[in-house]
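Hey team,

Sharing the MULE transposase domain-containing protein run so nobody has to redo it. Sequence (464 residues) first:
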Amino acid sequence: MGNTYKTNKYRQPLFEIVGMTSTELTFDIAFAYMESEQTENFCWVLEKLKELLVKKHSCPQVILTDRDLALMKAIEIVFPRSINLLCRFHINKNVGAKCKQYMVNDMQKTIYTLWMEVVWASDEVEYGQRLHQLEQACVDYSGFINYVKDTWLTPHKQRFVGAWINRVLHLGNTTTNQVESAHWKLKQMLENNIGDMVKCWEAMNNNLRLQLGNIRASFQKCFYEVEHAHISPFYGNLRGSVSRAALRRIAEELLRVGYVGTNRQICGCTLRLSYVLPCACELGRYAPGGIPIPIDVIHFHWRKLTMEVELEVGADDGLEVDMELEIIEKERSTLYDKLFCNRLAKVRESLMIKSFGSQPQQKWLTLPDMGSLIANHYNVVLVCLGKPCMTFFPMTSSHSPNVSIYCIGFVNQNHWVQVNMKEGFPLPPVTLDWKKFRCPTTTSWMLGFAGRLQHWQLLTPILA
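Structure output:
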């Protein structure tokens, strides 16, 4: 997050907050025109951001900024549990400028190289050694070394030096280049700096639409395009369910397995700690035996291949069901009381038949009522292709990899027929009733079929 200027005729700074998708594309989260750049102004913006979060008690794990002390203070107040990293690019640029100011040409390159070794130190022992080398080289340049230590290292080393940030889940974001790029693209849309709020809003909206189109296209490639390096069965569990950006990082890390093996000390586990992807020592346990990488070791960020928000039901909102209850039984359950409300008797009556064969219309299958009952009673996944298309998961059992999936289609506006689909076909959205009334332990259904549900979301504009 960061400010940009010269975007409007009111000369107000524009504060822009961006995020990164699993395909490593930037998207805008929020914009705010600010009266001034004081801590209280930043606090107001961050409080508004907090209100936008789907999970009200959550907070960003990592926030990346420049060394704006007012903004850093606001982050500490509003998001005290978030880790505030500082942009390495701008820090190195400032140190490079000071290097030129204090030193003659012959020494500049040497000193700057030593500084970069300090920044990239992989652990605290190496950091101490690199810093000592820099201090020794700067014996005659006390002004420079004092600037480096007083301005950056002493107060902020945990925010940008590798020894500390390699333990932080930053997903590769160590500079504010993403937000700087977003600033530039928005200004291209604005064309000038004399527009009013309406003109600025139109530019922001157009920019968001462009971002969304690019992001959806990048998600779609994850389903349909397989890079040559990822053809191996080693990636079989991940293809189509994990972004290609994540697969590339894993493929690069796999090259280290030869000399790392399963030794954690040699590995350093940076990919595991900073990206939550399997690092070399983990891959070393799978590769020799040809064991495919399990999808469970991949962080959910890299498995999110849609911009849709998954509605979640908290543990307090879930329903505890002691046993499976068939609707045709006389006793009532809390689950079906909630699901059908005052229609429970009518639904039960529709299932009562005197004999097999032709039945009156009031006994015909109706959705979504019967979809929930079929999925629950038979513990299957039911996919209904009609208007609308829906997926029904069981409401009281956990995901099973060997579950049967049945697909039915609505024909001639009057009856349902079974539809035979190809293996791995996309699944339409899960019913809202399932999300609202399911047992808390059933979340695994969404995780188990995340790739196929996301695939449908990508196809939705095409199908429409």
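The chain has four domains: 2-87+175-212, 88-165, 226-303, 334-463.

Ping me if you want the raw files.
A.
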